[in-house]
Design a protein that fits this description.
Layout lengths: L7 H15 L2 E2 L12 E7 L2 E9 L6 H15 L4 E6 L4 H10 L4 H6 L2 E7 L4 E6 L18 H18 L1
Parallel strand pairs: 3-4, 4-5
Antiparallel strand pairs: 1-2, 2-3, 5-6
Helix pairs in contact: 3-5
C-alpha cells in the first residue's frame, strides 16, 4: 500500500470521527506553545479528564517532524494529555527501520510516552501500535488491540540491538 494513499485532511477527519465514537469532544484548534496540533480532544469521565493531542502526517517520512511538534506541545501541557502521531498504513519494514534499525527513535518515543496510531479511512480502522492511551476505553474501539504486541516486539529487538552493539 502506498504511504501517500491518504492526505492529512482525510486522516484528520477520520481520527476526529473515531475520537467522537470513543466519546471525545474536539477542542478549538489553537496553538499550544510553539505548535498547533492537528487534533486536540477531551473526554470527561466523572472527576477525570482524558485529553488527546495529535499530529497527523501522511507518510512515515514526516514522523520526526510530527514527534518534534508533539514534544513542543508536551513542554507546555506536560503529562496530562496523551500524545499521538497519526500515520496512514505504513510498511512494517519501514516502521522497523525508523524505530530501531536506521533511525533508532524507539526509546525516545517511549521515554516521551508518545503513541503511534495507524489509520486507514478506506477500511475504517485505527490501530495503536506504539504506546497505549491512559483512557482504557479505547481498547473497545481500536481495530486490533493485539497489535499493541508490536510495541513489545520492537522493544525486545531494540534492547537486543543495544546489547549486541555493546558486546
Amino acid at each position: 500500500m502506498s504511504e501517500r494513499e491518504f492526505c492529512v485532511d482525510e486522516l484528520k477527519k477520520f481520527v476526529e470521527e473515531f475520537l467522537g465514537r470513543v466519546g471525545y469532544k474536539l477542542k478549538e484548534s489553537r496553538p499550544i506553545g510553539f505548535v498547533k496540533p492537528d487534533i486536540h480532544a477531551i473526554r470527561k469521565v466523572n472527576e477525570r479528564d482524558y485529553e488527546i493531542v495529535a499530529v497527523v502526517k501522511e507518510a512515515l517520512d514526516g514522523a520526526v517532524e510530527g514527534f518534534r511538534d508533539l514534544a513542543a506541545a508536551r513542554s507546555f501541557l506536560k503529562d496530562a494529555p496523551d500524545y499521538v502521531l497519526v500515520l496512514p498504513p505504513v510498511s512494517e519494514h519501514g516502521l522497523i527501520e525508523f524505530l530501531i534499525e536506521k533511525e533508532e527513535w524507539y526509546f525516545d518515543i517511549k521515554r516521551q510516552e508518545f503513541m503511534i496510531w495507524l489509520v486507514n479511512p478506506k477500511r475504517g480502522t485505527t490501530d495503536c501500535i506504539i504506546g497505549w492511551p491512559k483512557d482504557n476505553d479505547f481498547k473497545a474501539y481500536f481495530s486490533n488491540p493485539e497489535l499493541a504486541g508490536f510495541d513489545s516486539f520492537i522493544g525486545q529487538r531494540a534492547s537486543r540491538k543495544i546489547v549486541e552493539e555493546e558486546f
